[in-house]
Amino acid sequence: MEKKGSENALIETSMNGEDGMTSSSVSPPESPGQAHSGGSSPTSPSGQHVRVQVPLATALQGFSMQGPNGEPVLGPDGQPVLVRLVPVGGGGFAQQMFVAGRLVNEAISFNIAPSPVGYQNGDISLPNGLPSPTLPLSQTCAASANCPNAGNSTKSLSTAITIQPPQIGDVNSRSAVVSWAEPEGEDKCVSQWTYQLEMAHGHDSKFLFVYNGPGLQHHVDSLQAGKEYSFRVRATSTFTSNQKGSNNKTVVSPAVVVTTLSDRPGTPPAPRLGNRTRNSLTVKWSAPPCNGSEIIAYYLHWDQGNPYSGFVEEYKGTQRQHKVSRKLESGHCYRFQVFAENKIGRSNLSPIAAFCTLAGPPSPPGQPFLLSSTVDSLTVSWKEPIDSKGDSLEFKVEMEDPESGYGFMSVYCGDALQCVCKSLKKFSTYSFRVSASNAHGVSKFSAVSVFKTSPSAPGTPSVPRLDGRPHPRSVNIIWDSPTDTGGSPVSSYRVEVDDGKGGVFREGYSGSENSCCILDLQPGRSYRCRVSATSAGGVGQWSKISTVTTRPVAPDGPPAPFLAKGQKAKADSMTLHWKPPDCTGGSKITNYIVQMAERGKSGFTDIYSGRDTSFVVNSLQPGRSYRFRVKAKNLVGYGPWSDASLATTSAAVPDRPEPPIHHCRSPYHVLIEWQVRATRIC
Fold first, then answer.
1. pTM across the whole model
2. Is 138 helix (H, G, I), strand (E, B) or coil?
3. Contact between residue 357 and residue 277 where contact means Cβ atoms under 8 Å apart
């Protein structure tokens, strides 16, 4: 941080709080002619600054300033410049202010850079950005023979000092900015000015300070609109004289008067009650601050006794009270608020105030509302009258059962705000109303509310039964609705069937009808089925289980006949096997028929009929191929033929030939011939 003087050398100190070292700089005068008349200018080159670091203890004892090349820095008196830090002001060491100044004859000769610092951990640290006002060398006063005023303690140390009136700017209704200039005139011993801004209300009030510090401007807020204020500045500075320490100099500026801008009125306080009867209210209110402009009208608004509606205007005028007597009910509460108006505008609305007319019978309670419902009970609640205000009230609840024809009948009397009505019919409608009573009488009944008990789940339907003749792959079933619907109509039914083998149930139908057709069944199979009903009260229990059986059909064709694994056909026989059909048609297989045809021939011949699933075919020819097929029969009849399979007998030794026949052809040879039997193929 560096400050430049206009004539002579300036010295400024800053503290390093880490190593306890003091850094000083010397700035030479701009020209030798401007130095003190009693000495010469420093030897430091013009425009250069010399910085040195010395221990804190040395800075407090005093040290000499040196130039860049180690040459001593001379003051205006031609003597080396010695500098040290000295405490100024009262208090302990940690609270004192420290000043950097020239040391002459073991006393401070002049104050060049007064710098407030703090003391911490044995080191002195200068806060960053803290201003350090300084004085030119020619305005200093020495306590030695080198100072013009030396030894003359009665001689005046300064010429007349004055300060101009402060300037007022940015004036509005609540604040203003006050600025001022430094004092005018010369004083050779001033170290630092401190300013105190003082303010008074009007011309004759006592001045009170609103700011104290080194600044030349202050923003004054929290002012009142349309008011007159006086401002003045008091400047105080420290002087040095005749080795006797520090003296204070104070100068006060003339006062300046300013008037803040007018504003709309302040917020009025809440209205207050002046008087009340059973059917009237007198409302009063206090005037808010006018803020520099006369109030021209007051506006009184009210809610007309309805807390759920907005406020409407009841009165406009210059009076500060009003009697409200129209449309008021005894023992009823009304809310009010007021605002004021001047030429600038309207004030904010006042806080809301509520007043009640004198009590009569209470107003009707709130309309009953339902807390909970069951199949045979209703829990009903209500709000107490808005004008009860903690009064002791008793409530009467009446209920109407439309089916009884008796009208409203009392079901509860007491001070609670709810009641439970029991032994009601399920899913039935009931009407309720409630009245309140106090020492002054009974209120009117509240508005009527209608509630309904909850329905119960329906009962079980009848056992499902077959509707018409069964089909091989579907059945039609029918059932009756439950006798107890639970108070609400049945909305749907659900039918479930098992897999026909006693397994788990699956959904077969869901709908509102009392009959259905269940599909995707197997012929001749017995299925278990059940049904349940659903309504607004929930899902009812399952009915009893019934069994329905689909109509059987002829069996499907079995798989093609085959030779058993590991078996081979013989030359004249083979053993055929076959399996039952995948679908027996819902009836037990009672018979099989097997047919055979030689390969290349069209006709099939029955070779077996029976219940077995295997048969040995004999009387076959070796090496011949044969086709075989099979069909099954149940109680309904025969099913289709299976696919034909092909099987071949094995080869065998040839048959014995026919006896030979010989023919004598000559004395020397005989012709022998024989016939080969054609029944076997070798």
1. 0.40
2. helix
3. yes
